[in-house]
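Translate sequence into structure tokens.
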Amino acid sequence: MDTIAATAKPAIGRGLRLQWEPAQSAHVLLYPEGMIKLNGSAAEIMKRCDGERTVSEITADLERTFGTSGLGADVESFIRLALEKKWLEIHS
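Result follows.
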């Protein structure tokens, strides 16, 4: 998969659920066979992947929230990985 369009609207993949897991002290993706523990950056991106916001809106929100800039490449890279692993899907 090459670049992801800035207008793409990623959403949590079918059959997965994102939630805070106190026992792990982290956000996790739950699926029927188990769970995936996310690091803080991955969780912040995944929390914004609601199928409504575009990749550029997600990036802008993260940059605003954390008072930084230049996150576009990192956000796109994570979203590409999450799409390959079927953690995310693109909504139109």
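Note: The chain has a mean pLDDT of 95.
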